[in-house]
Amino acid sequence: TNSTTSVISITTTPSVKGVVTKKAVFSLGSNVDLHCSNRTWTEIMFVIWNIKLKHKICRISFTDKDHSVDSCNDGKSLRNTSAGQSYLHIPNISADDVGVYKCESVHTGGNENYKFEVAVTAPPKVSAWLERRDNKMVAVCRAEKGNPAAKISWSPAGNGSVTLQDEPDGFVTVESRLELSGDMDPENLTCVVHHQFWAQEKTLVPKLKEDLSLMLWIRVVVVVIVIVSVLLIIALKKRPCQQ
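RE: above sequence
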């Protein structure tokens, strides 16, 4: 990998039937290089990448006779290192690039087969607040669009109800709701969010959320008062002066 690749983890499984399997996790948005041979193009006869993604199956290949195939057409490309070794380049990796990448390279001494199980990780956007529901105070903690799903806990410890929502782009939103008992002080309550992207968990203190409906009514009343005041001023100006 080059300096622009952000690798979270790579796990290699011993070769089975001549195929070496690697499970690789990369940071969302990083540039990724997948290597399936240390042979140079002076030794390689052809390289074929068969790629199975969530929304499509495609192929990228190249031979020593300068014949290339690219049915992916999404920015992925075969490149060479300064030493002449071939690798597959994935720019700005996204959830659409998650999948299985099988590579076969044939060289003068034999062939090599690799299978990369590629995944991405992304930190969620976190928020926390307090809201009133049925004369009760509820603390809400939300970790939005992370991959994998974040884990949420409360301090002091509380049993919050947790919901997970799968987003269309492959990420997961997690929300935990904790109903506060009468003797629980909201000022001492914190929400703790754990995610593998972070070296340390995130801690948030939920604050009371504004009642949007009340704020809307207040704004409506203010607007009405302003309009009525303007109309009254105009009406008074149009009144004929009494002699």
